[in-house]
Amino acid sequence: MRLSEIVSHLGMTIYAEIGLVLFVSIFIAVLVYTFRRRNRPSFDRARHMPLFDGPMSETTISESPACEQVPAASTSSRLSGGTQ
Fold first, then answer.
1. Domain total for the chain?
2. Structural domain of residue 54, as residue ranges?
3. pTM of the predicted model, to two decimals?
């Protein structure tokens, strides 16, 4: 008897199926958590975290120049080095 035949007769295929179900369940849970509107403020804070040296707070983020919306035309002209 070969080792692969012995292992296949042990009935261990259920572990692979359980692992797949767990992975898919956790993946769906992460997707739901990520795209819920309720979590948007915390993701906005995390998005701007690398731009701050001091402690993070709601007022710090809202007063930051990094949070200002830049029009797309001025952004592209700055990136290309041209003027409008």
1. 1
2. 3-64
3. 0.48
pLDDT 10s per residue in the chain (84 long)?
A: 788 888 778 877 788 899 999 999 999 999 998 888 888 888 888 888 777 776 656 555 555 555 555 444 555 555 555 555
User: Which position has the token pair 């992460």?
Assistant: 30
18 SS3 class: helix
Angle 15-19-25 (CA atoms, 0-180°, nearest 5)? 145
DSSP assigned state of 53: S
Q: In terms of DSSP H, where are the helices of 1-84?
A: 3-9, 13-35, 40-48, 58-62, 72-80
HSE-CB at 41 with a 13 A cutoff on CA atoms is 7
